[in-house]
Amino acid sequence: MKFNSVFDIIGPVMIGPSSSHTAGAARIGKAARNLLGREPKWATIYLYESFAKTYKGHGTDFALIGGLLGFETDDSRMSKSLELAKANGMTYEFVEDTAATSHPNTVRLVIGDDQDQVELVGISIGGGKVEITELNGFELRLSGNHPALLITHNDRFGAIASVTSVLAKHEVNIGHMEVNRKDVGQEALMVIEVDQNVDDSILKELEASEYIGHISKIVS
Amino acid sequence: MFRTVAELVEIAERENILLSEVMIRQEMEVKERAREDVLSDMEKNLIVMENAIEDSLKGVESVTGLTGGDAVRIQTYMKEKTPLSGPLMMDAVSKAMGTNEVNAAMGTICATPTAGSAGCVPGTLFAVKNQLKPSREQMIRYLFTAGAFGFVVANNAFISGAAGGCQAEVGSAGAMASAAIVEMAGGTPQQSAEAFAITLKNMLGLVCDPVAGLVEVPCVKRNAAGASLAIVSADMALAGVTSRIPCDEVIGAMYRIGKTMPSALRETGEGGLADTPTGRMLKEKIFGLSV
Fold this sequence. Notes:
The structure holds two protein chains of two kinds. By secondary structure, chain A is α+β, with helices and mostly antiparallel strands. Chain A has two domains: 129 residues, CATH 3.30.1330.90; 71 residues, ACT domain (Alpha-Beta Plaits, 2-Layer Sandwich), CATH 3.30.70. Chain A is built from six helices and eleven strands. In chain A, strand 5 and strand 6 form a beta hairpin. The longest helix of chain A is centred in the first third of the chain and has 18 residues. Chain B has a single domain, classed as 2-methylcitrate dehydratase PrpD, CATH 1.10.4100. Helices cover 65% and strands 1% of the residues of chain B. The longest helix of chain B is centred in the first third of the chain and has 23 residues. Chains A and B meet through strand 1, helix 1, helix 2 and strand 5 of A and helix 2, helix 3, helix 5, strand 1 and helix 7 of B.
């Protein structure tokens, strides 16, 4: 089921005016920031359908940037986020894209700094709840409401077992998991939603496993 | 986990507990949390709702100037005259609109189930409370009852205007409020379901057509409609009136109607009231001709 908590319905506490266009947008922005691992220096933001048509009226622009600045949905600085981003030296651009998407509230964020970049697609499904549907060309489904690990690895037997056995050893429970690959034997991505934040020492242990590439984590 | 209103009501009847209790127990089980933590989190939401209503009664105005001040206007009218629809009704209308005025003015609110429809549940709660004199716990339970019904709608249909039109937002919010009023007034779980069905039936087909894409016109006044209909439906259900179409089938109808709604009427600001001469003029005035 898409919604599993009463607080998805009664909540979130947020700065107006729209749960899907403001609170949801802020959460997608924050997920992108978490995936980069730090505040981006630049952001190109593609908006689709309802997001593209109404983002100025709904404050979707300042909410997305607020998320990139790390703000929660009820942060009172939200409506000032565009100025705050400029003050932090962040450059950003909004593009209204006319391409058709499967969900009316869709945004593609390309963010980064001089070392790294992240490209993700997020959808805002109502009441402030969001899903990440694409990351760096991989299709996935991530709620952003739980801590998660995103692990690139070589598409080989044993790669998944090596990760899950380390998590099991440290008593980290997996709530949701999926694996995607670009092609047989090529780069692949594991998405693992967990019940608690994963300690950095566990990440180091995971990185040492065979066939494991880059690991990023989303804390919640 | 309950998936339908029928299942929700069945659990409450079988265990002889309130609908709010079904929701509380499910939250404790699914999230592995203690009762006091779940209740205290909901009380935090209640406090946000209370503060938003208080702020609105001091008078607020949105950045565009399109909305604000009507909650105060209605309260003043109630002091000077006897409202034709009764003081409780107009109090609910004033507090529902007030919550959405605060939302439009970028104040802090609690989405129930969304920000655009955030007025219906607290607006009715803080109006019926003057007559029903609930305990603090009953006020918190009101939100769990409302949440239980919203939970079914969100999982079987939708709660956002972009996906299903205003019927999915204010329609759901008003119907959630109806069900919660019935429980607080001492009605049965089945009567809550009847009240929910009656409200949602009368909101079917309502489009989402915000002027200039802003959550202001007509959203604030639609919350007045949702709140007032919620009270009427609750009274009907408490009187023993039932819905000929069962609650879950009404939710199914809402879903299918939303699926066939053109995108111009789903929160794009392109159709309906947004596309009237005055709607277009307001948009130009706010954003300039280039938008």
